[in-house]
Design brief:
Layout lengths: L1 H7 L10 H15 L4 H17 L4 E4 L3 H4 L11 E2 L1 H8 L27 H7 L2 E4 L8 H12 L24 H10 L3 H11 L5 H11 L7 H8 L3 H9 L7 E4 L2 E4 L49
Parallel strand pairs: 1-3
Antiparallel strand pairs: 2-3, 4-5
C-alpha cells in the first residue's frame, strides 16, 4: 500500500471474494438469469460505493458509462450518474443481491460483499457517482493507443470481436460471456464495437454489418474451461442457456434456433445511405508484439493476468 501511495499519490484498496463463494453464486445466477458474470459486475459496481460510505467520501468518479461509450443509449449531455436503480436494471439484470438471499443455497453471508449501501447511508455521506466520459471526449480506441505508446499496454486478439484493446484482462468476457449475450439477445460485443466505430466515423454501416457477420458465429474456445471449473456438463449448460433466449428475436425450428429478423438482412435497404455518417478515418487496431500468441489456459488463478 505504501508503494501505491508513492506511485499514485493515494491509497489503493482491493477486495477478492472467495472463489468457492463466487462459484456458489454463479451456480445460482446461471439457473436464475443465465449469467456467469453477475457476481463480477455486482462486485465491481458496489465495492467503491461501500468504501465511499466506510471512509465518508462523498464523490465517486467512475470511468466510462457503457451506455454512452459503446451502445449510444445516452449522450454525455444527459449527464447520467451512477445510481442503484440504473445498476439494478441494466448491470444486474434486475436482481439486487438481496433478491438472491435464501434462493437455492445462498445466504446473506454469501452475498455480503454485494450488498449496496442503504439510501439513508448514501444520504448521510452525500455520496454521488459521476462518469468521467460526461466531461471529456471518450474514445476508448484512442485512449488505449495512448496507453500503448506511453506505458506499453499489451493488446490481444479477441475471440468474438475485432477490438484488440477491450477486455483483454479476462478469460471469458469476449468469449463465453459474449456468446451467452449473443444467444440471449441476438447480438454480441462485435455489434457494440462496430456501432461505436460507426458513430466515431471510423467505419461505415456496411462495413460494420460485414464485420458482425465475420465474428457473430465464432465458437469460443473457453467454454470447457468454465464448465470444468463450475462442475457442469457442457451440453447441460448450453441447454440451460436456451431457456433465456428471447422469443421475440429467434424462433425454434425442430432443434435449431433461427432469427426472426436480423440487421444482416438490411445491409442494402433503400434509403440507408442517405442518412449514413461519413467515414473520416480508417479503423485499425494495434496488436502488441508480446501478445501475438495466446498460451493454452487450463485452470484459473485467484488474481492473475488474462494471459500467460
Amino acid at each position: 500500500l505504501s508503494y501505491l501511495k508513492t506511485l499514485f499519490g493515494c491509497p489503493l484498496f482491493t477486495m477478492t471474494v472467495s472463489p468457492e463463494r463466487g462459484k456458489k453464486i454463479t451456480h445460482e445466477t446461471i439457473n436464475r438469469m443465465g449469467s456467469i458474470y453477475w457476481h463480477c459486475i455486482a462486485g465491481q459496481t458496489v465495492f467503491p460505493v461501500q468504501m465511499a460510505y466506510k471512509f465518508k467520501i462523498p464523490l465517486i468518479i467512475w470511468g466510462a458509462h457503457q451506455g454512452v461509450d459503446q451502445v449510444g443509449m445516452f449522450s454525455h449531455l444527459d449527464e447520467v450518474e451512477m445510481t442503484r436503480k440504473y445498476r439494478k436494471e441494466h448491470d444486474l439484470m434486475g436482481y439486487e443481491a438481496e433478491d438472491l438471499v435464501d434462493v437455492g443455497a445462498l445466504t446473506e453471508t454469501d452475498l455480503q460483499n454485494y450488498l449496496y449501501p442503504h439510501d439513508k447511508e448514501l444520504e448521510a455521506v452525500g455520496i454521488r457517482g459521476i462518469y468521467l466520459n460526461n466531461y471529456i471526449r471518450w474514445d476508448s480506441k484512442a485512449q488505449h493507443e495512448k496507453m500503448i505508446e506511453m506505458y506499453g499496454y499489451e493488446s490481444s486478439i479477441q475471440q468474438r470481436t475485432f477490438d484488440t484493446y477491450n477486455d483483454v484482462d479476462c478469460y471469458h468476457y469476449s468469449g463465453l460471456h459474449d456468446l451467452i449475450k449473443y444467444l440471449k439477445w441476438g447480438y454480441g460485443k462485435v455489434s457494440d464495437h462496430a456501432t461505436r466505430e460507426i458513430r466515431l466515423k471510423r467505419m461505415t454501416r456496411s462495413e460494420g454489418i460485414d464485420i458482425v457477420k465475420k465474428y457473430a458465429l465464432h465458437e469460443p474456445h473457453d467454454t470447457d474451461l468454465f464448465c470444468n471449473w463450475i462442475g457442469i456438463n457442457k451440453n447441460e449448460f448450453l441447454e440451460i442457456l436456451n431457456n433465456f433466449r428471447s422469443s421475440t428475436i429467434r424462433s425454434k425450428e425442430n432443434t435449431h434456433w433461427e432469427f426472426n429478423d436480423n440487421v444482416q438482412n438490411h445491409q442494402s435497404d433503400a434509403g440507408v445511405n442517405k442518412n449514413a455518417l461519413e467515414k473520416v478515418e480508417e479503423c485499425s487496431f494495434i496488436l502488441s508484439s508480446k501478445r501475438t500468441e495466446q498460451a493454452e489456459i487450463n485452470k484459473y488463478t485467484l488474481i492473475g493476468r488474462g494471459w500467460i
